[in-house]
Amino acid sequence: MRCYENEMTGNLFSSNPTLLLCKHLHLHNKTTTFAKRTSSMTSKGIKKRILDFEMGKVFRLEDLELSRSEYNAAVVALGRLAQEGEIERLSPGVYYKPKQTRFGVVGPSMEERFRDLLYDGDTPIAYLTGLYAFNLFGLTTQHSSILEIGTNFPKRNTKRGIYAIRFVLQKNQICQDNIDMLRLLDCLKWIKKIPDTTVDKSYTLLKKKVSEYEKEDHKQLVELSLNYTPLTRALLGSMLTDESLVVTLHQTLNPLTRFRIGLSSTLVSSQWNIQ
């Protein structure tokens, strides 16, 4: 086999095309081996990180803190782990580490399932409401594939898995300390829409819930209710016992307005014009 040296570069070239092909295949095999090794390392690293997650955690690709060069291999690795049953894919880019109990696998809580829509880091920016709140307060046992989320900023409705997500504008600033109160006010606002129950039952349960709040919480409830409908304020006012708070709410209402929601007159004072 004849070889010659390039006078300008000092590189060796072979005049034999077979040797050139061998060198090309050798480099290709080395590259392929390196890629497989890198992918394997990424898979092991991802599996280790997922094992460190608590059971029942919902996570996204970004939570794995990977470099950009690892993303493609990570997607493949997550797909493989999902096929093996190590994790579950909830929606594109969103995964869940199953929680094993003696009764079997438990699905993620609704808060965890939609955490990326509800939190910015650890700061709440939205909250589950609607039928979720009705169930949370024991007002109904019905479930729905329509999920309502309260948010401070208008957003387009979307769909995730089996759930159709509808965003509801909340005029009060959302924070961790007031989400429970906002849900209660939402229930009062939508009291006629609560399924599989009566307005009387819902009113009685919500009144009991209001009575369980501390006095300072009642003040906050009244402040929050000022950004709600007149019906919401009337219902809340009829449930309070603090005279100053009752007067505050009553003064925000038009005395000529009648609220016809099918509530028994025996449950509420006539001063609120709720029928």
Structure description:
The chain is α+β, with helices and mostly antiparallel strands and 275 residues long. The chain is built from ten helices and 13 strands. It has helices at 17-52, 71-83, 110-113, 115-118, 131-136, 179-189, 199-211, 215-225, 230-239, 243-250; strands at 3-5, 12-14, 58-60, 88-91, 94-96, 99-101, 104-106, 119-120, 123-124, 126-129, 146-151, 158-160, 163-169. The strands form five sheets. The protein has a four-stranded mixed sheet. A hairpin with a 6-residue loop joins strand 1 (3-5) and strand 2 (12-14). Helix 1 (17-52) packs across helix 2 (71-83) and helix 6 crosses helix 9. The radius of gyration is 30 Å and the shape is elongated. 23% of the residues are buried. The model is unreliable at 1-10 and 25-41 (pLDDT under 50).
